[in-house]
Amino acid sequence: MARHFLVAQLRFLATTLALVGLVICLGATASFGQEPRGETPPPQPKTTVDTAIPIEQLRVLARPLTREELEVEADAWFELLRKKAGQISAAQLGVKKTNDALAADDEDAAKQAIDEASRVMDKAEAESEQAEREMAEGAQESLGLDGPTHADDEPESQRSDQADRGEGSGTHPATDAAAIKKDDLLADITTLQDERAALADRLEVVLASLERKSLDDADEKVAEYRKYVLAVSGIELDAKDASATWAAITGWLKSREGGQRWLWNLGKFLLVLMASYLVAGVVASLMRWLLERRINMSRLAENLIARTIKNIVMLIGLAIALTALEIDITPIIAAIGAAGFIIGFALQGTLSNFASGLMILINRPFDVGDVVSAGGVTGLVQQMNLVSTTFHTFDNQTIHVPNNEIWGNVITNITANDKRRVDLEFGIGYDDDFEHAEEIIHQVVQEHELVLDEPEPVVVTHELADSSVNIVCRPWAKTSDWWKVKTDITRSVKRRFDQEGISIPYPQTDIHVYQHQLASAQSGSQT
Questions:
Q1: Number of domains in the chain
Q2: What residues does the Mechanosensitive ion channel MscS C-terminal domain cover (predicted)?
Q3: Residue 377: what pLDDT?
Q4: Which domain-ending residue is among 273, 306, 338?
Q5: Model-level pTM?
Q6: Residue 440: CB partners within 8 Å, gap ≥ 6?
Q7: Could you tell me the residue range of the domain that residue 428 belongs to?
Q8: How would you label 422-459 residue by residue, b for 16+ Cβ within 10 Å and e otherwise?
Q9: Is 509 domain-assigned?
Q10: Residue 296 falls within a domain, yes or no?
Q11: How far apart are CA 427 and CA 2, in angstroms?
């Protein structure tokens, strides 16, 4: 029994040792097959392989990049922009040095100022070219490309041209050399400003992509870069140097990234506005046709909806047009949203009119073309928006009434129905025959061609007033003929009454004076 137990223990130990050895062998094999890992190289930019890359291509390249990769790209483009801004500052400093040389009376001082300007410009140019070269080489290495880029070709040709002009100016006095040097620097500043604007545009593309993919912690970096771009952009004018100011203005107007660019942007702005206006008109007409033919809505609602849609399309077109001018509308929209509560509080009356306008549209108490008495005004409804309703009165006045004044009071739609009763009242004297007067009025009503047979007209004596016996006449007519029927019957009845000798009495009051009371009062006063 003990012998079998010992054999089992030995077998278990042998199996365990075999498994441990197998694990060690597998680990050693895996370690042997792996290459030793070195330190991870720092990420290199990919989009700076060509600093003149088109904007659309740069957007395509930036789309699949991660946030970390975009941060590297942003740093690379920012460094290029910073070097270019430094190069512009060096050129501007060189202009000031040449001004000192032109103002100096001593030839040696003038030559020294020219040499300082050249050294400053050469140093800044070398730093900018070195930065571009490093960024391009890093991008080539990251993308696995070979061969030089064309980024260095233009500066090299510019340097050779400047060198030729410098050699040719050796025969001139120092002041002439300073003037030539100043002209070269002013021309260089215009070119450098174009290059700076191009770099700023490409940096903005990367920053926009980074902003969409980043968290709040990266927003500070994006904002910092954008503030820097804003700080170094534009042109600087020296009022003390007329030639430099004129060269800066003319150079900006002629430059591709300056005057030509803004002229093209202005053209796009106007074109987008015109297109938006045309599209808004077409959309409004289509919506009005759809509401009129397909949906049973009032003309008031049709006009309001069509006009609102037209304004919305125009507003969208204006936003697109502003982007054509390179104006960022995001802060404007954010400011409007932030001020929404304040604006809403300040426009309480307008919001009340808006709500009343919606209630009028929903309940449809009147429509365009109706004669309405509402808000203390009686007239023809011309149009309505969400704030007010426009009336055209019969004495040719145009009155705008707030919607809350209309909805909060009694609304009388005079022309809502196609038929309307004409209420007339005639007074005759107490000595006249009222039955004969009724017959005359009834004949006049029956003879009028615009009086409707149904409902039947009513002519009846209904009141014994203080000065007259009043007879009411109530014929019916079409709403459009109401005013004509009223005036015609009134004229005809007056004419017939005069012919038949029936009087229309004036309001009169009888005064009775009692003489004995007056005499008693006089005798009492004498005693």
A1: 4
A2: 422-504
A3: 92
A4: 338
A5: 0.50
A6: 493, 496, 497, 500, 502
A7: 419-500
A8: bebebbbeeebebeebbebbbebbeebeebbeeeebeb
A9: no
A10: yes
A11: 146
